[in-house]
Design brief:
The protein is an alpha/beta fold. It has two domains: 62 residues, Orthogonal Bundle (Arc Repressor Mutant, subunit A), CATH 1.10.10.10; 184 residues, Rossmann fold (3-Layer(aba) Sandwich). Helices cover 39% and strands 23% of the residues. The strands form four sheets. Strands 6-5-4-9-12-14-15 form a seven-stranded parallel β-sheet, sandwiched between helices. The radius of gyration is 18 Å and the shape is globular. The two termini are 21 Å apart.
Length: 264
């Protein structure tokens, strides 16, 4: 059974049972714990379940937005899932052996772990899921070294935020800061929480180049807090979006790197 079919079967099992343990999946599908954890990360990353200690839990109707309950959501979710992976792969291609980088937490930046785990680099992050994913994906000794900031674990996000996080980030200089966002407009980027934004702003200040990762769903979309303006970042890696906004981005001196939108 290939990976895609196995994950489909795991989701079906979740729908039937409500939750599954890593031990059960390893026994049912004859896979190693490392493979099972990768499957869990992929399934949770697609919004099809939530990770628990040692397992997965089905996302109930009360936890889903109206879009999740619509018939077309699964197609759109898979589309964005694939697009995010393409964006993350393009971001990882910028990183060279020996680099020191920082990575913000987010659904797109999480995928960078898949492409950086075996590179001889140092990664500073405030994302617990990202740190764990790099550790899971590392297939040889001497791969990426991970440095987690301290701080307050923001509920249900896996993000470390707050004064301790900011203090630790200020102690490092990095070549690239890879950032997520909640929305983009003609001024710059936005995100969902002031404490998250504080960490992002320090990452930008401590980097030689700040690189934003955003799929097309983020274009011309508002979020709660202004995070940065276009003249503060170096590059945007994205899929197709509003051409007028793309012109504003490039006129601000930001390098625009577009990957082809996934079709499924």
């Amino acid at each position: 059974m290939d990976r895609k079919e196995r994950q489909r079967q795991i989701v079906l099992l979740l729908e039937k049972l409500g939750d599954v343990s890593l031990e059960k999946v390893c026994r049912e599908f004859g896979v190693s714990p490392a493979t099972g954890r990768r499957d869990f990360s992929d399934i949770a990353g697609r919004g099809l379940a939530s990770k628990t200690w040692g397992g997965l839990r089905r996302v109930g109707n009360e936890e889903r937005s109206p879009r999740v309950l619509s018939g077309s959501f699964s197609t759109r979710q898979e589309k964005y899932h694939q697009s995010k992976k393409l964006i993350a792969e393009a971001a990882a291609a910028l990183v060279e052996e020996g680099d020191v980088i920082s990575i913000d937490g987010g659904s797109t930046t999480l995928f960078i772990a898949d492409f950086l785990a075996d590179k001889r680099i140092r990664v500073l992050t405030n994302s617990v899921p990202l740190a764990l994913r790099i550790d899971e994906r590392r297939s040889r000794p001497g791969g990426a070294e991970v440095f987690l900031t301290g701080g307050f674990l923001y509920p249900e996000t896996g993000l470390l935020v707050g004064p301790q996080t900011v203090k630790n980030l200020l102690e490092y200089n990095v070549r690239y800061a890879f950032l997520s966002c909640g929305g983009l407009d003609e001024v710059g980027g936005m995100n969902t929480n002031q404490m998250v934004v504080e960490s992002e702003r320090v990452m930008i200040a401590q980097s030689e180049q700040a690189v934003v990762l955003a799929d097309s769903s983020k274009w011309s979309r508002n979020d709660m807090v202004r995070a940065w303006e276009w003249n503060e970042v170096s590059a945007l890696i994205t899929t197709s979006g509003d051409e007028n906004l793309a012109n504003i981005v490039q006129n601000a001196g930001v390098r625009l790197l577009k990957v082809r939108e996934s079709q499924g």
